[in-house]
User: Which sequence fits this backbone?
């Protein structure tokens, strides 16, 4: 099934090379008496961050404040938010979209995606060996992610070195659509570790080097690999500190990289102005990563009380993918995923959700990260209801995917809030997501840099 899914995506992309001939979901019309004509969906090519529009919001969550605002007018000029104020007469020179029954929010942020992947079996990556083969897949995934309401995505690694650089650069040039991307370039991992492509029955020496670009041992080698990632255009560095769930042979709770190895990577990344995300399921690896200076901890499934207190004290964020364990269990069994993967998923899913609740109580910063690609891209918002069920308030969950995420990505002055001066990234959902967080699974409007990429009225 996984190969059929990948083949379908590649065939779809090959058949729609001019993906931007009509890249949104149609043309919407301004709602209400003040609507000033049709709202056209942006077409390719376009100049990014140059759009201008007025949006009247029945309810507005700005990503920072704890109380929603009523009847607000958001003005975006030349790609940036010019004003957010109580609705009054709209500027005559701008198209107006009036949304009296909708809630407007900042564009959402997923801090843990894998845009170059659409399956979980490590063996599958051996079938996609070149950037030319990878681009159609990452293009489709980026488009789907944006239209789901995620205007920013932190892509935390690809087995193919720099597999997401191409789509990131095309999006930045206005040649494709997708979120604003930070990409890690490749995984930094020990030989046979959770970021390596070693699979049963395949000799390591037969696997192309481009699929093992970040494999290293010792602080010096890891520092060298970090420099290579930076030189190749990485925006963030990803280390695999512990074993992984969806990898052969690893034990999620067991350390793989040492604290000294992580620290060597952190020194190189921070010197270049980049942040470090540490994949760490186990408590020892979480503590090692925090003490080595990592900026975020990915998964944190088996954190103990000490590591939770340490994260809270040091202000290190947890990015916890608490939805996808259900997908691994149900779909993995149905589709015959490797027994090892499903077993390790079962062993970490409930434990991770209990850690999430403990982290909420302890005041650990939480950022919204889904590990999308384990499950289909575009389902990113399914995790919100899990976060609320496990102790986050709906507003805190939204802030974890807006202003808090932007802060830990180093982009808080650009995205993550509906405030004057920030980039004009806005979404809208019908109704009130604070009353029903699952409203975020049905996004009506997506605006990025003042350009409308999706508009449809969702019942």
Assistant:
């Amino acid at each position: 099934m996984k190969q059929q899914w990948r083949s379908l995506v590649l065939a779809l992309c090959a058949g729609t090379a001019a993906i931007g001939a009509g890249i949104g979901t149609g043309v919407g019309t301004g709602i209400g008496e003040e609507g000033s004509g049709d709202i056209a969906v942006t077409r390719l090519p376009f100049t990014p961050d140059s759009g201008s529009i007025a949006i009247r919001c029945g309810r507005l969550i700005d990503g920072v404040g704890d109380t929603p605002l009523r009847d607000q007018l958001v003005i975006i000029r030349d790609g940036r938010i010019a004003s957010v104020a109580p609705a009054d007469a709209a500027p005559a020179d701008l198209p107006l979209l009036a949304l009296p029954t909708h809630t407007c929010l900042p564009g959402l942020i997923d801090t843990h995606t894998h845009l170059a992947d659409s399956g979980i079996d490590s063996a599958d990556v051996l079938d996609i060996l070149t950037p030319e083969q990878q681009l159609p897949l990452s293009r489709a995934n980026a488009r789907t992610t944006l239209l789901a309401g995620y205007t920013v995505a932190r892509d935390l690694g690809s087995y193919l070195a720099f597999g997401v650089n191409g789509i990131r650069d095309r999006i930045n040039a206005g040649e494709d659509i997708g979120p604003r991307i930070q990409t890690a370039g490749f995984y930094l991992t020990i030989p046979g570790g959770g970021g390596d492509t070693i699979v049963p029955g395949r000799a390591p020496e037969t696997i192309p080097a481009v699929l093992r670009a970040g494999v290293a041992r010792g602080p010096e080698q890891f520092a060298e690999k970090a420099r290579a990632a930076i030189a190749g255009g990485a925006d963030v560095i990803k280390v695999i500190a512990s074993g992984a769930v969806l990898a052969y042979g690893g034990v999620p709770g067991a350390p793989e990289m040492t604290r000294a190895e992580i620290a060597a990577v952190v020194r190189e990344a921070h010197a270049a102005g980049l942040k470090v995300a540490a994949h760490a399921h186990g408590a020892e690896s979480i503590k090692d990563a925090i003490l080595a200076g990592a900026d975020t901890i990915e998964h944190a499934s088996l954190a103990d009380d000490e590591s939770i207190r340490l994260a809270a004290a040091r202000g290190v964020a947890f990015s916890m993918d608490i939805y996808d364990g259900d997908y691994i269990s149900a779909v993995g069994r149905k589709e015959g995923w490797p027994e090892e993967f499903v077993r390790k998923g079962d062993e970490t899913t409930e434990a991770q959700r209990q850690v999430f609740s403990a982290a909420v109580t302890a005041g650990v910063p939480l950022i919204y990260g889904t590990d999308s690609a384990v499950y289909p891209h575009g389902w990113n918002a399914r995790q919100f209801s899990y976060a609320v069920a496990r102790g986050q308030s709906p507003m805190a969950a939204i802030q974890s995917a807006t202003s808090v995420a932007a802060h830990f990505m180093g982009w808080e002055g650009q995205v993550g809030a509906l405030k004057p001066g920030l980039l004009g990234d806005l979404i809208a959902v019908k109704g009130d997501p604070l009353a029903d967080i699952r409203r975020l699974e049905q996004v009506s409007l997506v605006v990025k840099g003042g350009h409308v990429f999706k508009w449809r009225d969702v019942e």
